[in-house]
């Protein structure tokens, strides 16, 4: 199973970033006082499980738990239940327990995830496997674009056909104009005469346009890192949070999810199912990650989130993720609710939320751009997760986003499986589109 954590350069601000480079580094040591005995969840990690490339040697950090020599066998359960003061802690999934003082406080009922059943983790799928899925997913968008270059010469007709294909792929007028101008310049400068070679130049041009969207999601800079996830109904928020959480667990992270979609029946259960899923073959968490869910069906989403951030701080969580209910940006009262959730997070932790992520369905083309604009205006987005790029004819929308509202794309999704959500690479995307 892949992961894509990479340690940042050693510094006081050491954190972890999601990159496209594979499982290349260990999660950085947090900075607990060395004299404090490590809690169970911070059991030293066997270096063998976390290969570090020679090119990036780790600095000596003797006090850091993750760097400490590990015992030969570390019998760490897949998911450790946090030791909570909550009375419901003994039950795997307990009914909401009313907080004694604060009336709307949601129950903190930990979800005990099953311990690893199978000792045989699946082999980590290679990035190559991902690239072929990405290519396959973008085939509908790419085929009409690539078809343009089967013409016999580079002339106005070729550029007109390309313009039409870009517009049909929902690249949008601005990005299309930009790409055509840039391409013509590259053709002139390189004195290219073969239409097939123009395709290569378009890959370069598109990569450059998309490059500003390529940015890693950082984990580890804050305690905890608080993320708020928003989007329209059915965009793939819960699924994406589930996939993200799986990767965080595999990287030894303590994750607290806030089911801030309090009107959805079984929101909690849906999150729990995803948190447990791994390739459909059971939990395969290596190490000491654990997940917990805060929910209160029918409660105030802002109160649930507030409670989750406070609980996350109290329990020493690494990441708190708030899953909000889907809404259209035109539903102004619901957009106000999101603003309130964001304000309330800041009350619980002054520098939070650290990430406001919009999940957009890539299959909606220009509509996705409209959503990015509207949610960004309301919430000042920090990143995007673009889902459902599999089978879409509208994959050009990423170019439109890059040109018109360049919010970083942390992840793209090409399917419903765990490994179908991966970090975004501008060049990979351009190559897959025009392959
Ligand atoms: N084909 C495909 N389906 C996806 C992808 N991501 C999510 N889905 C599916 O999209 C559907 C909706 O996903 P959810 O995660 O429930 O969406 P949501 O945004 O949480 O929905 P609401 O809570 O109703 O707003 C599910 O059937 C997912 O399996 C993807 O990348 N590709």
From TrEMBL:
Domain of life: Bacteria
UniProt family annotation: Belongs to the GTP-binding SRP family. FtsY subfamily.
Enzyme Commission number(s) of this protein: 3.6.5.4
Function: Involved in targeting and insertion of nascent membrane proteins into the cytoplasmic membrane. Acts as a receptor for the complex formed by the signal recognition particle (SRP) and the ribosome-nascent chain (RNC). Interaction with SRP-RNC leads to the transfer of the RNC complex to the Sec translocase for insertion into the membrane, the hydrolysis of GTP by both Ffh and FtsY, and the dissociation of the SRP-FtsY complex into the individual components.
Example GO molecular function: signal recognition particle binding
UniProt keyword list: Cell membrane, Cytoplasm, GTP-binding, Hydrolase, Membrane, Nucleotide-binding, Receptor
Cellular compartments annotated: Cell membrane; Cytoplasm
Full protein name: Signal recognition particle receptor FtsY
Catalytic activity: GTP + H2O = GDP + phosphate + H(+)
Ranges where the SRP54-type proteins GTP-binding domain occurs: 408-421
Gene: ftsY
Gene Ontology terms: biological process: SRP-dependent cotranslational protein targeting to membrane
PANTHER family (alphabetical): SIGNAL RECOGNITION PARTICLE RECEPTOR SUBUNIT ALPHA
Topology term for the membrane: Peripheral membrane protein
The keyword Acetylation is annotated on this UniProt entry: no
GO cellular component, one term: plasma membrane
Source organism of the structure: Inhella proteolytica
Binding-site residues for GTP, renumbered to this chain: 231-238, 323-327, 387-390
Quaternary structure and partners: Part of the signal recognition particle protein translocation system, which is composed of SRP and FtsY. SRP is a ribonucleoprotein composed of Ffh and a 4.5S RNA molecule.
InterPro entries: AAA+_ATPase, P-loop_NTPase, Signal_recog_particl_SRP54_hlx, SR_rcpt_FtsY, SRP/SRP_N, SRP54_GTPase_dom, SRP54_N_sf
Top enzyme category: hydrolase
């Amino acid at each position: 199973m892949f992961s894509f954590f990479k340690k940042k350069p050693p510094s006081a601000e050491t954190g972890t970033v999601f990159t496209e480079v594979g499982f290349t580094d260990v999660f950085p040591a947090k900075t607990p006082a060395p004299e404090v005995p490590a809690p169970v969840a911070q059991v030293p990690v066997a270096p063998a499980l976390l290969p570090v490339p020679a090119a990036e040697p780790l600095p000596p950090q003797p006090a850091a738990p993750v760097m400490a020599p590990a015992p030969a066998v570390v019998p760490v359960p897949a998911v450790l239940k946090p030791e909570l003061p909550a009375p419901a802690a003994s039950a795997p999934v307990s009914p909401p327990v009313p907080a004694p003082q604060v009336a709307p406080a949601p129950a903190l009922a930990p979800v005990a995830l099953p311990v690893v059943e199978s000792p045989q983790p699946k082999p980590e799928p290679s990035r190559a496997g991902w690239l072929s899925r990405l290519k396959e997913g973008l085939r509908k968008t790419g085929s009409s674009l690539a078809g343009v270059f089967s013409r016999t010469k580079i002339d106005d007709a070729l550029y007109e056909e390309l313009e039409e294909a870009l517009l049909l792929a929902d690249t949008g007028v601005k990005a299309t104009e930009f790409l055509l101008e840039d391409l013509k310049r590259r053709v002139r400068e390189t004195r290219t005469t073969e239409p097939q070679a123009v395709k290569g130049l378009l890959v370069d041009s598109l990569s450059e346009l998309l490059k500003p969207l390529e940015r890693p999601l950082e984990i580890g800079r804050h305690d905890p890192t608080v993320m708020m996830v928003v989007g329209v109904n059915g965009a793939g928020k819960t699924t994406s949070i589930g996939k993200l959480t799986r990767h965080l667990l595999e990287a030894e992270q303590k994750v607290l999810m806030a089911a801030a979609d309090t009107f959805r029946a079984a929101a909690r259960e849906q999150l729990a199912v995803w948190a447990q899923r791994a390739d459909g073959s059971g939990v395969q968490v290596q190490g000491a990650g654990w997940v917990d869910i805060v929910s209160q069906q029918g409660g105030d989403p802002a109160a649930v989130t507030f409670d989750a951030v406070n609980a996350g701080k109290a329990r020493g969580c690494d990441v708190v993720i708030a899953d909000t209910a889907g809404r259209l940006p035109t539903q102004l009262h619901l957009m106000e609710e999101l603003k309130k959730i964001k304000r309330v997070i800041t009350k619980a932790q002054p520098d939070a939320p650290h990430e406001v992520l919009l999940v957009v369905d890539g299959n909606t083309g220009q509509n996705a751009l409209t959503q990015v604009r509207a949610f960004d205006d309301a919430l000042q987005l920090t990143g995007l997760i673009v889902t459902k790029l599999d089978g879409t004819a509208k994959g050009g929308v990423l170019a439109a986003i890059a040109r018109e509202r360049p919010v970083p794309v942390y992840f793209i999704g090409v399917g419903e499986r765990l490994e179908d959500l991966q970090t975004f690479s501008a060049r990979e995307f351009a190559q897959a589109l025009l392959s």
